[in-house]
Amino acid sequence: MSRRIFILGSTGSIGCSTVRTILHLRSRDGKDSWPVGGLAAGANFPLLKEQSKVLKVNAVSVHVDTSLGTEHQYSSAVELLESHAKRGDLVVAAIVGFAGIAPVLTAIEMGCDIALANKETLVAAGEIIMQAAQNAGVHILPVDSEHSAIFQSLSSSTKKEVKKIVLTASGGSLRGMSATEVKTASIEQVLNHPTWNMGAKVTVDSASLMNKALELIEAQWLFGVSSSQLGAIIHPQSIVHGMVEFVDGSVIAQLSPPDMRLPIQYALTWPSRVAGCSPAVDWANFKDLTFDQIDTSIFPAIELAYRVMERGGTSGAVMNAANEVVVEAFLAQNIPFGSMVGIVTEVLENNSILDASALEAVVEADREARVHAAQLIASYKVNS
User: DSSP 3-state assignment of 92?
Assistant: First the structure.
């Protein structure tokens, strides 16, 4: 089996894991299998050039004004897809943030299935994306390890049989710290994730558990369940990635060592499974699986997710936009870690929430939330 792939965000963490997964599949299925129709990246020109050579790709998009010497080069992922994507292709959507929405919509319009690693796409524009996918008859295949786990656990079940979907969280780099320690955590502490190797933005979100909040909202759209059917729990070992409790009391979970190549490969080869390049659980040396409740007094982002799911409309776009702004401000050392979720909450409470069925409304909500968040940050005095 084989299909043509486009990788959006190819030089990021998910993109690099996708490249390694494709090389593994080619070693299994032949060097001409799993062709890559195009790569899209931001400004990491050297890595993109290396990837295009290794994968034998002749169409790329990159934000820097430098030629890679490929046959086709574009300034945006949207242009790349419009020029080369075809119905039946699979687009790995790994561009971080709100910027990933337009390429995903373009890919859907082109008739491509989506291997979705950009959670912000559904958080901000879930109604639009899911409706577009349904209209186009394409599949949205989750790549996040937690959503892939749920997708796999639900493979032989119907929605009416589901009682509860539970996403697991490693707890991030600040797990076990006191409320005071979390509020004053340094950039170095926040970016020192004990389990996953991710980009800076996702790692900061993981430390605040905003990542899990976004994933809960994403799960609502992916699996068509209510907020009351969704939950999250701390699981430090990152072996159980997600669980589904059914109405009869049974719980089905997906377990594997923390390695993003597994959910990426499952999305690429779905509905089949093939020999993988990631390790299996070593049961002979494995001892403990532990689970802890999330302390929302220390990590209030989780409660914010439920407010967004219950409120609906453009609230997801507002929350996501404000969060992107505060993460950038924290990394620039303009605000302390403990202020981020509070600023997002204030933006969410004071911005208009409108119907989110039109992209224009989502884009405007995103713009207004960014302006409001920036104003709050500008007035915030660090160490005041």
Answer: strand
Confidence of residue 126 (pLDDT cuts 50, 70, 90): very high
For residue 36, pLDDT over 90 is answered with yes
Dihedral of the CA atoms 164, 303, 338, 176 (nearest 10)? -40
Domain 5-142 is in which class? alpha beta
HEC readout, 199-241: CHHHHHHHHHCHHHHHHHHHHHHHHCCCHHHEEEEECCCCCEE
Report the run of H or E that residue 145 belongs to, with start and end: helix 145-153
Helix (H, G, I), strand (E, B) or coil at 230: strand
Q: Is pLDDT above 80 for 353?
A: yes
Residue ranges of domains in the chain? 5-142, 145-173+191-291
Q: What is the 3-state secondary structure (H, E, C) of 118-138?
A: CHHHHHHHHHHHHHHHHHHCC
Q: Answer whether 84's CB lies under 8 Å from 39's CB.
A: no
